[in-house]
Write a structure and sequence with these properties.
The complex is a heterodimer of chains A (about 120) and B (about 525). Chain A is an alpha/beta fold. In chain A, about 40% of the residues lie in helices and about 20% in strands. Chain A contains five helices and five strands. In chain A, helix 2 runs parallel beside helix 3. The longest helix of chain A has 12 residues. With about 525 residues, chain B is an alpha+beta fold. The two termini of chain B are about 60 Å apart. The chains are: A alpha/beta (about 120), B alpha+beta (about 525).
Chain lengths: ~120, ~525
């Protein structure tokens, strides 16, 4: 477990499974949260190297979760990728304002996501 | 106030419970009656004047007769005097003839002056005495007793002649006085008659005018009111009611107009309610489509993700004969995703929630992503699929995602409707405009169908849908996106040769103008 840690906040199990399988063969460690509140708690507890944040989440939205994470000094600089299935215009802008480093619209290609992860957080 | 004063007779006429025909007929009969009255009164006045003139003439004749009598008396005296001077037979005969003339005149007088019986009786008596005196004088003269004759003349005939003269003078004076009185009376009467005729004529005229005015106004006022009401109705105002006092055909017409207005108002309300219900239903539909699209995309995302990872050998090596079916899953899945995206976009457009996300983008990247996505589809159909792009196109500013979607729709359609030949995507810069062009060698579009091509759902009910499939949303959504960029889209097509869908947008979209 010497690799870098990635936190994935997503309520949909198949989507979590895709990322889990995608990262299985890499050196990244994946930790998962099922809703916004849990996501914030895990981010503050584990201080991951990268956070993948779904926007449509139960309890508190991904936007709110990102704002809270950014508000904490420990995670203020952590790169975050906002993932949305709505692709509504303005979402990217809103995500950036909430603190996202990058933005990915669903449906995304898993390999594109991997490319993005590697760009933001080189494996070695 | 003046208007109200002037209106009340019209209102009275209007309120009269009779038909317009009866009212008009009555009015004409009243006017005709007034004319008859004026005529009768005028004629009566004329008759009176005539009668009075005749009386005056009678008096005139009476006076003349009296004067004749006077004259006769003097002539008689003169004639007797002559006979006294020249007592020959001829003069004597003339004197006797004078006497006869006198008698004749007296008879005539009796005829013209019947009312002067008493004086006439005295005249007659004196006359007879005078005749007797004169006859006696003449007899005496004939007998040669001239001196006795003169005595008879001066003592008897003279005083009689004087009395006769006085009497006739009295008659003449009386008649003249009578005539003057009658003349005054006649003039007065004429004045009265004239005044009466004028008065009746004026009253009749005023009555006729008043009647005409009232009836006209009682007809015109409600017609004007109803005309105004019709104008209001035509302008969509159903709230007013027209109120006319008429109890005739116009009253019925006004009542019917009000009924029609009420009915129109009811129908209008009904239509408005229906419209509102439709709008609510449409909004529900849009919301349903939006949430449905989202729900559909979540599992599809997983399907595409897993399939791509299988193809990417994440789960180990994929047997060679499984690669084609897996690739087909990927192609079909992406197609399904595009359809779902179209439905979502349409829902957003209808709900008015569609906004552009403007960024700098490279035209080549947009075109290339479309080509790479649709490449397999073209390859499957054995179509040539090319991109023509000048190297010098500058960075564009707009919603790259929406432009990609437009090109995807156009190129997807082109591939769908082309059985052989090629599909070409081209882009070029013309001044401040960026022109995209998707051309195919397909079946072409009949000219009569071009007009409705970009209309929502147009294809869904047409026979094309069953032959080629598709939702018919792609073009209308593309048109909307192009227009949101401040551009326009059109099609050039020739049956059997192919079609070219072209859209031009500003190279750099003005944020303020982009809707």
């Amino acid at each position: 477990m010497s690799g870098k840690t990635i936190l994935y906040v997503e309520d949909n199990e198949p989507n979590r499974m895709i990322v889990r399988d995608l990262l299985k063969r890499t050196s990244y460690n994946l930790i998962e949260a099922h809703d916004g509140e849990a996501g914030v708690a895990m981010a503050l507890e584990h201080v991951p190297d990268l956070i993948l944040m779904d926007i449509q989440l139960p309890k508190i939205s991904g936007m709110e979760a990102m704002r809270r994470i950014r508000a904490n000094p420990a995670t203020a600089q952590t790169p975050m990728v906002a993932i949305t299935s709505f692709a509504l215009s303005g979402d990217e802008q809103k995500a950036k304002e909430a603190g996202a480093t990058a933005y990915l619209a669903k449906p995304y290609s898993p390999f594109d996501l991997l490319k993005l992860i590697r760009k933001l957080l080189p494996e070695t | 106030m003046i208007r109200r004063l002037a209106n009340w007779p019209a209102e009275v006429v209007a309120r009269a419970p009779a038909s317009i025909f009866a009212k008009l007929l009555t009015a004409f009969l009243v006017i005709a009656g007034l004319l008859v009255i004026v005529g009768v009164v005028g004629l009566a006045a004329l008759d009176t004047v005539n009668l009075r003139t005749e009386e005056l003439v009678k008096i005139q004749r009476k006076i003349a007769a009296y004067r004749q009598l006077q004259h006769d008396t003097i002539a008689q005296l003169y004639s007797v005097a002559s006979a006294l001077v020249v007592p020959d037979e001829r003069t004597l005969d003339a004197t006797l003839r004078q006497l006869n003339q006198f008698g004749y005149d007296l008879d005539r007088l009796q005829f013209v002056a019947q009312d002067e019986v008493e004086i006439l009786e005295r005249v007659r008596k004196d006359y007879e005495a005078f005749i007797a005196a004169v006859t006696e004088a003449i007899e005496l003269i004939r007998a040669g007793k001239v001196a006795e004759g003169r005595a008879a003349q001066t003592e008897r005939a003279g005083p009689l002649a004087d009395r006769l003269e006085r009497l006739t003078n009295e008659l003449v004076n009386k008649a003249e006085a009578d005539m003057l009185a009658r003349l005054d009376e006649s003039i007065e009467h004429y004045r009265d008659a004239r005044l009466l005729v004028i008065a009746i004529a004026i009253v009749s005229l005023l009555l006729a005018l008043g009647l005409g005015y009232s009836i006209s106004l009682s007809l015109i006022a409600p017609v004007r009111k109803m005309g105004q009401r019709f104008d209001e109705l035509a302008a969509g105002d159903f709230s007013q009611r027209v109120s006319v006092p008429n109890r005739d055909e116009l009253g019925v017409l006004a009542a019917n107009l009000n009924r029609m207005s009420d009915e129109l108002a009811r129908l209008f309300r009904e239509i408005a309610d229906k419209g509102e219900q439709l709008e609510i239903a449409s909004r529900h539909k849009s919301e349903f489509l939006a949430s449905m699209s989202h729900e559909l995309r979540t599992p599809l995302n997983a399907i595409l993700g897993f399939n791509e990872m299988i193809l990417g050998q994440i789960y180990g090596e994929v047997p060679a004969d499984m690669q084609a079916p897996l690739a087909q899953i990927q192609t079909s899945g992406k197609h399904l995703l595009r359809l779902i995206n179209n439905v979502l976009d349409l829902a957003k457009i209808e709900a008015g929630r569609m906004e552009l996300s403007l960024t700098e983008y490279a035209v080549s990247e947009v075109v290339e992503s479309v080509r790479s996505t649709l490449q397999s589809l073209a390859a499957d159909k054995g179509l040539e699929f090319v991109v023509t792009l000048p190297a010098d196109i500058p960075l564009a500013y707009g919603d790259a995602g929406r432009i990609t979607q437009c090109l995807m729709n156009l190129a997807g359609n082109a591939l769908k409707f082309t059985k052989a030949g090629k599909v070409e995507i081209a882009a070029e810069c013309r001044g401040e405009l960026l022109v995209y062009r998707v051309e195919d060698t397909g079946t072409g579009i009949p000219p009569e169908k071009i007009g409705s091509l970009f209309t929502e759902f147009k294809q869904t009910d047409a026979s094309i849908a069953s032959e080629y499939g598709g939702t018919g949303l792609g073009l209308s959504i593309s048109k909307k996106f192009v227009e949101m960029h401040g551009g326009r889209i059109w099609v050039e097509s020739e049956l059997g040769k192919g079609s070219a869908f072209i859209f031009e947008i500003p190279l750099r979209v003005n944020e303020k103008e982009a809707a």
